[in-house]
Amino acid sequence: MNRRMHPFRPLLLATLALTAVGCSTTQTNTPSPVAKPVAAPTGPVSISNRAMLLFDDAVKSFDAQKKAKAFDYPSLERKFKAALEADQNLAEAEYNLGVIAERMGKADEAKARYAAALTKKPSLRQASDNLAIMKQNGGDVAGAVALYQDVLTRYPDDAGSRARLAEIYRQNNDHDKAMELSRAALMRDPMNTNALKVMIRSYLDRKQLAMAKLVALRAVKLDGTDPELHQAVGLILLKEGDTEGARLQFKSALEAKADYVPAHVELAQLALNAEDFPGAEEHLRRILQADGKNAAAHVDLGIALKGQGQYDKAMQEYDEAEKLNPDLGATYLNRGIILHKVKDAPERAVELYKKYVALAGGEVALHAEAPVFGLLREAESIVQAKREASAAEAQAKQMEALQAQQQAAMKAEEAKQKGQTPPPPGGATPVSGTGTAPQATPASATGTQQPAATPAGGAQTAPAQKNAAPVDSDEPTDDLL
């Protein structure tokens, strides 16, 4: 089996990786970290001591879990709820419950918590930021812009809102405005890596790799624990052709955050390209742990399993991919390859290849030299050869039967000319029924005299001899004629 049959991978994983540096569809605008006021919340409303003690205990638990890189969100949720129940005016506890809800996938609850926190404390701009980010990630760009501008109206020196507005302008291809807002954010906060990420993406959009790399390396020096920054450097190195350097950056991203999916995506693709199928399988399974409904990842996992000779498991992955996304052409192409090359089912493979071509937009949309056409021609030729072989075998059997009939007819004609009963087909001795006596059965090899044949009349006769005479059993037999 040729191990190089693995280039037919879906483009969805590649698309995810290219947008990994940041855009609203990949959720790179993440919520601000859990709020940790340096001192007790201030404002016209005083907070009870019990609520503050409970709040401090919850924040300490968060810090410990962050250090251990193992969050127990239900436990944190209970602690912040206890602080809020002790004093409903504690806006920071309300906000932190919103962050926890968002991290647990409870978007509606998170929005409600952020809104409640702003009602209790309008100056809590982190809540405005996260609401705006959720609106932006949900496609409500106008709503997000309104919230960011509201923050800037109340806090003219806020760098974070400027950086996020810059990203919106970049996504709308207004790179001049995006760069202007990014620089304004950095003037107010030189450590703002979000502004640097916008600049990196803007330079990449305009294919200015040298400038993108310069800004990315600067950003990594500022915050080496941000996986997005290592990912950005890795993508730039890939575009420059430095595969090994890119691999190291993607691994650094995973060291910063073990479940950072875009880095696993890139490392899985690099492993598949290098035919490191066990390595690819490891990264793909991590991707599917984070998103089990990623049809493209199931297809790539099938390719990795096929590369290890696990064809049935590969077919199971293709089946799962088809359930999740029946319009993903790579599913049918890769399934067809196994049926064609391994399972000796070229007829089914032809159907799958044609379905792939149809999903790709037909022959006009695909390049004439696309590998699928070579596979299709090869499978069709095998199908045709099988048909011809089957037809030839059937014809040979017919000829054999015809020859047997002719031979039987010739033997029957010879027997008729000699006045004998024609032998039945197959050469069996016929049962006497025409009055002609059959030949006597000769003596056995042991010398024992066999009984004479019985004629049609039923009377037993002795075998004919030249000098027919009764044989006296008491006298020796004279062998002379």
From TrEMBL:
TPR repeats lie at residues 91-124, 159-192, 295-328. It comes from Corallococcus interemptor. Residues 394-481 are annotated as: Disordered. Pfam families: TPR_19, TPR_6. Residues 1-19 form the signal peptide. The lineage of its organism: Bacteria, Pseudomonadati, Myxococcota, Myxococcia, Myxococcales. Residues 472-481 have a biased composition (Acidic residues). This is Tetratricopeptide repeat protein. Residues 394-410, 428-465 have a biased composition (Low complexity). The keyword Oxidoreductase does not apply. Keywords: Signal, TPR repeat. It comes from the Bacteria.
